[in-house]
Amino acid sequence: MRRKLVVGNWKMNGSRTSNAVLLSEIVAGLGATGAASAVCVPAPYLAQCQTQLTGSSLAWGAQDVSVHASGAYTGEVSVAMLQDFACNYVILGHSERRAYHGETDAQVAAKTVAALAAGITPIVCIGEHLDEREAGQTDAVVAKQLNAVLAVLSEADVAKLVLAYEPVWAIGTGKTATPQMAQEVHQVLRGHLAAKNAVAAAGVQILYGGSMKPENAKELMAMPDIDGGLIGGAALKAADFLAIIHAAD
Fold first, then answer.
1. Is 166 annotated in the active site?
2. Angle of helix 138-150 versus helix 105-117 axis, rounded to 10
3. Distance (Å, rounded) from C-alpha 58 to C-alpha 76?
4. N- or C-end of the chain: fewer Cβ atoms within 10 A?
5. How many CB atoms lie under 10 A from the CB of residue 199?
6. Are strands 162-165 and 228-231 parallel, antiparallel or unpaired?
7. At what angle do helices 238-247 and 16-30 cross, to 10 degrees?
8. pTM of the model
9. What would the pLDDT profile of 175-210 be if each residue is shown by its tens digit?
Protein backbone atom coordinates (compact mmCIF):
# COMPACT_ATOMS: atom_id res chain seq x y z
CA MET A 1 0.00 0.00 0.00
CA ARG A 2 1.54 3.29 -1.10
CA ARG A 3 1.53 6.05 1.50
CA LYS A 4 -0.08 9.26 0.29
CA LEU A 5 2.26 12.24 -0.08
CA VAL A 6 1.23 15.90 -0.23
CA VAL A 7 3.93 18.40 -1.22
CA GLY A 8 3.55 22.16 -1.22
CA ASN A 9 5.38 24.03 -3.99
CA TRP A 10 5.72 27.61 -2.77
CA LYS A 11 7.12 28.73 -6.13
CA MET A 12 8.56 32.26 -5.81
CA ASN A 13 6.55 33.26 -2.75
CA GLY A 14 7.28 33.86 0.92
CA SER A 15 9.11 36.01 3.43
CA ARG A 16 10.82 35.13 6.68
CA THR A 17 7.93 36.54 8.67
CA SER A 18 5.08 34.99 6.68
CA ASN A 19 6.94 31.68 6.40
CA ALA A 20 7.30 31.40 10.17
CA VAL A 21 3.56 31.81 10.63
CA LEU A 22 2.63 29.44 7.80
CA LEU A 23 5.00 26.68 8.90
CA SER A 24 3.87 26.96 12.53
CA GLU A 25 0.22 26.69 11.54
CA ILE A 26 0.83 23.68 9.31
CA VAL A 27 2.84 21.81 11.95
CA ALA A 28 0.24 22.59 14.61
CA GLY A 29 -2.58 21.33 12.42
CA LEU A 30 -1.04 18.12 11.12
CA GLY A 31 -2.15 15.94 14.02
CA ALA A 32 -2.39 12.22 13.45
CA THR A 33 -2.44 11.80 9.70
CA GLY A 34 -1.47 8.79 7.67
CA ALA A 35 -0.14 10.93 4.84
CA ALA A 36 3.41 12.20 4.46
CA SER A 37 3.79 15.92 3.81
CA ALA A 38 6.48 18.36 2.74
CA VAL A 39 7.07 21.90 1.52
CA CYS A 40 9.45 22.81 -1.31
CA VAL A 41 10.54 26.39 -0.81
CA PRO A 42 12.75 29.02 -2.48
CA ALA A 43 16.42 28.29 -1.78
CA PRO A 44 16.93 31.30 0.56
CA TYR A 45 14.38 29.82 2.96
CA LEU A 46 15.83 26.32 3.28
CA ALA A 47 17.75 27.31 6.41
CA GLN A 48 14.55 28.62 7.96
CA CYS A 49 12.77 25.36 7.19
CA GLN A 50 15.61 23.30 8.64
CA THR A 51 15.55 25.34 11.85
CA GLN A 52 11.79 25.41 12.25
CA LEU A 53 10.82 21.95 11.00
CA THR A 54 13.54 19.69 12.40
CA GLY A 55 11.81 17.24 14.73
CA SER A 56 8.39 17.76 13.13
CA SER A 57 6.65 15.43 10.69
CA LEU A 58 6.68 18.08 7.93
CA ALA A 59 9.59 17.50 5.55
CA TRP A 60 11.16 20.13 3.30
CA GLY A 61 12.92 20.43 -0.01
CA ALA A 62 14.00 22.65 -2.89
CA GLN A 63 12.45 23.60 -6.22
CA ASP A 64 15.42 22.91 -8.49
CA VAL A 65 19.07 21.82 -8.45
CA SER A 66 22.07 22.10 -10.77
CA VAL A 67 23.54 19.19 -12.66
CA HIS A 68 26.98 20.52 -11.68
CA ALA A 69 28.68 19.68 -8.40
CA SER A 70 30.39 23.08 -8.09
CA GLY A 71 32.11 25.73 -10.17
CA ALA A 72 31.51 28.87 -12.21
CA TYR A 73 27.72 28.55 -12.54
CA THR A 74 26.40 31.85 -11.20
CA GLY A 75 22.97 31.56 -9.64
CA GLU A 76 22.95 27.77 -9.53
CA VAL A 77 22.45 25.61 -6.42
CA SER A 78 24.25 22.27 -6.06
CA VAL A 79 23.07 19.04 -4.46
CA ALA A 80 25.74 19.47 -1.77
CA MET A 81 24.15 22.79 -0.83
CA LEU A 82 20.77 21.09 -0.53
CA GLN A 83 22.40 18.44 1.64
CA ASP A 84 23.73 21.19 3.92
CA PHE A 85 20.13 22.05 4.76
CA ALA A 86 18.99 18.41 5.10
CA CYS A 87 16.59 18.60 2.15
CA ASN A 88 14.43 15.53 1.72
CA TYR A 89 13.06 16.41 -1.71
CA VAL A 90 13.77 18.46 -4.82
CA ILE A 91 11.26 19.30 -7.56
CA LEU A 92 12.69 18.68 -11.03
CA GLY A 93 11.36 19.50 -14.49
CA HIS A 94 8.42 21.57 -13.27
CA SER A 95 6.34 22.86 -16.17
CA GLU A 96 7.37 26.42 -15.32
CA ARG A 97 11.06 25.49 -15.48
CA ARG A 98 10.52 23.76 -18.80
CA ALA A 99 8.53 26.70 -20.21
CA TYR A 100 10.39 29.73 -18.80
CA HIS A 101 13.93 28.35 -18.59
CA GLY A 102 13.93 26.00 -21.55
CA GLU A 103 14.72 22.89 -19.51
CA THR A 104 15.00 19.82 -21.70
CA ASP A 105 14.16 16.20 -20.94
CA ALA A 106 17.90 15.47 -20.94
CA GLN A 107 18.58 18.17 -18.34
CA VAL A 108 15.78 16.88 -16.12
CA ALA A 109 17.25 13.38 -16.40
CA ALA A 110 20.73 14.62 -15.45
CA LYS A 111 19.33 16.52 -12.46
CA THR A 112 17.50 13.37 -11.36
CA VAL A 113 20.77 11.43 -11.39
CA ALA A 114 22.47 14.18 -9.34
CA ALA A 115 19.69 14.23 -6.74
CA LEU A 116 19.64 10.46 -6.35
CA ALA A 117 23.41 10.34 -5.94
CA ALA A 118 23.05 12.79 -3.06
CA GLY A 119 20.30 10.78 -1.38
CA ILE A 120 17.65 13.43 -2.11
CA THR A 121 14.30 12.26 -3.46
CA PRO A 122 13.55 13.82 -6.85
CA ILE A 123 9.96 14.81 -7.59
CA VAL A 124 10.05 14.53 -11.38
CA CYS A 125 7.32 16.57 -13.07
CA ILE A 126 5.71 15.42 -16.30
CA GLY A 127 2.81 16.83 -18.28
CA GLU A 128 1.31 17.97 -21.57
CA HIS A 129 0.03 21.27 -22.95
CA LEU A 130 -3.45 21.93 -24.31
CA ASP A 131 -2.48 21.62 -27.97
CA GLU A 132 -0.82 18.28 -27.24
CA ARG A 133 -3.88 16.96 -25.40
CA GLU A 134 -6.26 18.13 -28.12
CA ALA A 135 -4.07 16.41 -30.70
CA GLY A 136 -4.33 13.15 -28.80
CA GLN A 137 -0.63 13.20 -27.94
CA THR A 138 -0.88 13.03 -24.13
CA ASP A 139 0.41 9.47 -23.77
CA ALA A 140 3.28 10.04 -26.18
CA VAL A 141 4.34 13.31 -24.53
CA VAL A 142 4.39 12.01 -20.97
CA ALA A 143 6.09 8.78 -22.09
CA LYS A 144 8.86 10.77 -23.81
CA GLN A 145 9.46 12.90 -20.71
CA LEU A 146 9.47 9.95 -18.32
CA ASN A 147 11.50 7.60 -20.48
CA ALA A 148 14.25 10.21 -20.84
CA VAL A 149 14.70 9.93 -17.08
CA LEU A 150 14.32 6.15 -16.89
CA ALA A 151 16.92 5.70 -19.62
CA VAL A 152 19.69 7.03 -17.37
CA LEU A 153 18.64 5.21 -14.20
CA SER A 154 19.35 1.73 -12.93
CA GLU A 155 16.43 -0.58 -12.21
CA ALA A 156 17.04 -0.09 -8.48
CA ASP A 157 16.80 3.70 -8.80
CA VAL A 158 13.19 3.50 -9.99
CA ALA A 159 12.09 2.81 -6.43
CA LYS A 160 13.64 6.11 -5.27
CA LEU A 161 11.56 8.34 -7.55
CA VAL A 162 8.45 10.40 -6.95
CA LEU A 163 6.56 11.52 -10.05
CA ALA A 164 4.16 14.43 -10.41
CA TYR A 165 1.73 14.64 -13.31
CA GLU A 166 1.01 18.23 -14.34
CA PRO A 167 -1.73 18.68 -16.93
CA VAL A 168 -0.39 22.10 -17.91
CA TRP A 169 -3.62 22.83 -19.79
CA ALA A 170 -5.65 22.55 -16.58
CA ILE A 171 -3.54 24.83 -14.37
CA GLY A 172 -4.96 28.33 -13.97
CA THR A 173 -6.91 28.09 -17.22
CA GLY A 174 -10.39 27.35 -15.95
CA LYS A 175 -10.29 23.97 -17.71
CA THR A 176 -10.65 20.92 -15.51
CA ALA A 177 -9.08 17.49 -15.55
CA THR A 178 -11.56 15.06 -14.06
CA PRO A 179 -10.29 12.47 -11.58
CA GLN A 180 -10.76 9.81 -14.26
CA MET A 181 -8.77 11.82 -16.81
CA ALA A 182 -5.96 12.23 -14.30
CA GLN A 183 -6.10 8.54 -13.34
CA GLU A 184 -5.69 7.50 -16.97
CA VAL A 185 -2.40 9.39 -17.27
CA HIS A 186 -1.16 8.19 -13.88
CA GLN A 187 -1.85 4.64 -15.02
CA VAL A 188 0.14 5.23 -18.21
CA LEU A 189 3.07 6.58 -16.17
CA ARG A 190 3.02 3.57 -13.85
CA GLY A 191 3.03 1.31 -16.87
CA HIS A 192 6.24 2.89 -18.14
CA LEU A 193 7.79 2.57 -14.68
CA ALA A 194 6.82 -1.10 -14.67
CA ALA A 195 8.54 -1.64 -18.00
CA LYS A 196 11.78 -0.65 -16.26
CA ASN A 197 11.13 -2.33 -12.91
CA ALA A 198 7.73 -3.89 -12.27
CA VAL A 199 8.27 -4.47 -8.56
CA ALA A 200 9.48 -0.92 -7.89
CA ALA A 201 6.74 0.63 -10.03
CA ALA A 202 4.06 -0.66 -7.69
CA GLY A 203 5.55 1.39 -4.85
CA VAL A 204 6.34 4.68 -6.62
CA GLN A 205 4.22 7.62 -5.49
CA ILE A 206 2.69 9.49 -8.44
CA LEU A 207 1.33 12.88 -7.38
CA TYR A 208 -1.28 14.96 -9.15
CA GLY A 209 -0.15 18.52 -9.90
CA GLY A 210 -3.17 19.98 -11.64
CA SER A 211 -4.64 22.53 -9.23
CA MET A 212 -5.56 20.17 -6.41
CA LYS A 213 -7.73 21.97 -3.85
CA PRO A 214 -9.60 21.03 -0.66
CA GLU A 215 -12.76 20.71 -2.78
CA ASN A 216 -11.40 18.06 -5.16
CA ALA A 217 -8.56 16.44 -3.20
CA LYS A 218 -10.49 13.54 -1.74
CA GLU A 219 -12.04 12.52 -5.06
CA LEU A 220 -8.71 12.75 -6.87
CA MET A 221 -6.81 10.77 -4.26
CA ALA A 222 -9.47 8.06 -4.30
CA MET A 223 -8.21 7.06 -7.76
CA PRO A 224 -6.04 3.92 -7.62
CA ASP A 225 -2.89 5.48 -9.11
CA ILE A 226 -3.10 9.00 -7.63
CA ASP A 227 -0.91 8.92 -4.55
CA GLY A 228 -1.13 12.53 -3.40
CA GLY A 229 -0.62 16.02 -4.73
CA LEU A 230 1.93 18.62 -5.70
CA ILE A 231 0.17 21.71 -4.45
CA GLY A 232 0.70 25.27 -5.68
CA GLY A 233 -1.46 28.15 -4.49
CA ALA A 234 -3.32 26.15 -1.86
CA ALA A 235 0.00 25.36 -0.14
CA LEU A 236 0.38 29.03 0.81
CA LYS A 237 -2.72 28.88 3.03
CA ALA A 238 -2.34 26.65 6.06
CA ALA A 239 -6.05 25.76 6.26
CA ASP A 240 -6.21 24.71 2.60
CA PHE A 241 -2.94 22.78 2.70
CA LEU A 242 -3.98 20.95 5.86
CA ALA A 243 -7.39 20.14 4.38
CA ILE A 244 -5.69 18.48 1.40
CA ILE A 245 -3.33 16.52 3.67
CA HIS A 246 -6.22 15.27 5.79
CA ALA A 247 -8.24 14.44 2.66
CA ALA A 248 -5.53 11.87 1.98
CA ASP A 249 -6.70 9.95 5.05
1. yes
2. 40
3. 26
4. N
5. 10
6. unpaired
7. 30
8. 0.97
9. 778 999 999 999 999 999 999 999 999 999 999 998
